[in-house]
Design brief:
By secondary structure, the protein is of the alpha/beta class. It has helices spanning 9-12, 26-37, 56-66, 104-113, 129-132, and strands spanning 21-23, 45-49, 81-85, 90-95, 118-123, 136-144, 150-156. It has five helices and seven strands, in the order αβαβαββαβαββ. Helix 2 crosses helix 3.
Length: 160
């Protein structure tokens, strides 16, 4: 596992003494997503945590673009999942905000979204953590830091 201090330069530009990163705009949050994407491969799952409006979908937008998805990435809050075709990999973007728990249909949907050559980003992952735990390589926590700034903590769970 590469420590955060060895992360791509664009991902450490806003590094703070506590090890967290700070992005100053949506563009910087997207750039961080793109930097993260360079370390991901098919089969990986990234958990995204943060309040509403913290930048989870913005980070996914940057990652999806870096993975070759040439379409506009939007929040899947009401659809639960969106899929994007990238360069040799599919990007799955799930938002489990509306789920209090998982029913059989929900588990089937998640299994379908994570099947094949996919890199998955899961917002509000609590209901599915047990189901996807063995595939999680990164946890990202985003916090509002005033205006357009975000504090971001990256916790890598797998070597990259």
């Amino acid at each position: 596992m590469r420590p955060e201090s060895e992360a791509p330069a664009s991902a450490t530009r806003g590094a703070r003494p506590d090890g967290r990163l700070r992005t100053a705009s949506a563009t910087e949050t997207e750039a961080l997503g793109a930097a993260i994407a360079t370390r991901l491969r098919a089969g990986d799952v990234v958990l995204l945590r943060g309040e509403l409006g913290a930048g989870k979908t913005t980070l996914v937008r940057g990652a999806a673009a870096a993975l070759g998805a040439g379409v506009r990435v939007t929040s899947p809050t009401f659809a639960l999942a969106h899929r994007y075709d990238g360069d040799g990999v599919r990007v799955a973007h799930l938002d489990l905000y509306r789920l209090a728990g998982l029913g059989e249909d929900d588990e089937d949907l998640i299994a379908e979204e994570l099947a094949g050559d996919v890199v998955a980003f899961v917002e509000w992952p609590a209901p599915a953590v047990d189901l996807i735990a063995d595939r999680v390589v990164l946890e990202v926590a985003l916090d509002h830091a005033g205006a357009d700034e975000r504090d971001v903590a990256l916790t890598w769970r797998a070597p990259r």
